[in-house]
């Protein structure tokens, strides 16, 4: 089952390349809207059908309501994070985008302070290490942060809220596919409103970006999430999150192999420090053996 999580990380890492290519043809709102329309169209039917036994479905109105409300809340954060990510990726490389976005893994426990969850000394160390790595890959001479890097930082912050929302609402249902489907639907609607207000979508442009949109919508959204669900079912959560954080590595490799993007030595060091912070933050604490 660990192989499924590795495959999911590979799919998500390569999605940054698809997003980067998509910016050449359509605006951020259009790309986000169309990709999540596809994801919702796949996962909602699967979620409705996943619990069927003997031609009957155990889904109650309460479960549907929970999935709808949870999907809306999670979708608001996902839409905000995805839009800032899509706009930011227009002016930064896929590799840097992947690593900065990965900072949400450190941000989640830190954000938990406001929800009564006090992080330990290790988390504070990881946060500091992550900030140093972020500085090396984002801040240029004169303390200038590029627009794309700043938007990616905002994206990581918003993803922290999205992850905590998913954690909260997923505890009240066993049908995670339906919750994810409604989340994608809410994201598509919100970004669709932005598309109609701020952009001029054209079918010709959407058709030109068909491959990146299909990959982001079908593979990254629907397939990647399904692999995560299946993989985590039989894998320890700490190990699963550790494996999935390889998304950042596959993102950089995809940008290098497909887009021929390069990182300076300073940026590579920053990526290494940031990735080390992500990994260390997820490792379980070593329990002290009780005295005999």
Topology:
Blueprint lengths: L1 H21 L5 H22 L11 H28 L5 H8 L2 H8 L9 H18 E2 L3 E2 L1 H24 L5 H23 L4 H6 L1 H24 L3 H8 L2 H11 L7 H18 L10
Antiparallel strand pairs: 1-2
Helix pairs in contact: 1-4, 1-10, 1-12, 2-3, 2-8, 2-10, 3-7, 3-8, 4-7, 4-12, 5-6, 5-7, 6-13, 8-10
Give an overview in words.
The protein has helices at residues 2-22, 28-49, 61-88, 94-101, 104-111, 121-138, 147-170, 176-198, 203-208, 210-233, 237-244, 247-257, 265-282, and strands spanning 139-140, 144-145. By secondary structure, the protein is mostly helical. It has one domain (2-282). It has a two-stranded antiparallel sheet. A hairpin with a 3-residue loop joins strand 1 and strand 2 (144-145). 50% of the residues are buried. Residues 287-292 have low confidence and may be disordered.
Poorly predicted parts: 287-292
- Give the overall shape, derived from the CA principal axes: globular
Major pleated sheet: 2 strands, antiparallel
Backbone CA Rg: 19 Å
Give the strand order of the largest sheet, numbering strands 1, 2, ... along the chain: 1-2
Hey, roughly how much beta strand do the residues contain?
Answer: under 5%
Order of helices and strands: HHHHHHEEHHHHHHH
Count the beta strands: 2
Give the tally of structural domains. Answer: 1
Number of helices: 13
What structural class should be given to the helix and strand makeup?
Answer: mainly alpha
Average pLDDT over all residues: 81
Query: What fraction, in percent, of the residue positions are helical?
Result: over 70%
Distance N to C terminus: 38 Å
């Amino acid at each position: 089952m660990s192989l499924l999580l590795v495959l999911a990380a590979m799919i998500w890492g390569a999605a940054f390349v698809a997003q980067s290519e998509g910016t050449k043809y359509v605006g951020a709102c259009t790309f986000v809207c169309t990709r999540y329309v596809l994801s919702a169209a796949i996962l909602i039917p699967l979620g409705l059908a996943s619990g069927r036994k003997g031609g009957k479905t155990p889904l109650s109105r309460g479960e549907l309501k929970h999935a709808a409300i949870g999907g809306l809340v999670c979708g608001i954060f996902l839409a905000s994070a995805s839009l800032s990510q899509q706009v930011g990726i227009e002016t930064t490389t896929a590799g840097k985008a992947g690593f900065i976005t990965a900072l949400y893994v450190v941000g989640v426990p830190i954000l938990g302070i406001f929800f009564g969850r006090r992080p330990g000394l290790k988390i504070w160390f990881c946060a500091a290490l992550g900030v140093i790595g972020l500085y090396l890959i984002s801040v240029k001479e004169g303390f200038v942060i590029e627009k794309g890097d700043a938007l990616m930082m905002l994206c990581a912050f918003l993803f922290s809220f999205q992850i905590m929302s998913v954690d909260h609402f997923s505890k009240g249902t066993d049908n995670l596919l339906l919750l994810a489907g409604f989340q994608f639907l809410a994201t598509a609607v919100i970004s669709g409103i932005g598309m109609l207000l701020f952009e001029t979508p054209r079918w010709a442009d959407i058709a030109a970006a068909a491959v990146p949109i299909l990959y982001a919508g079908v593979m990254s959204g629907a397939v990647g999430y399904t692999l995560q669900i299946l993989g985590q079912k039989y894998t320890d959560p700490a190990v699963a999150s550790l494996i999935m954080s390889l998304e950042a590595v596959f993102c950089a490799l995809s940008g290098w192999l497909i887009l021929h993007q390069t990182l300076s030595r300073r940026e590579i060091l920053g990526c290494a420090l940031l990735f080390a912070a992500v990994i260390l933050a997820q490792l379980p604490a070593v329990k002290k053996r009780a005295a005999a």
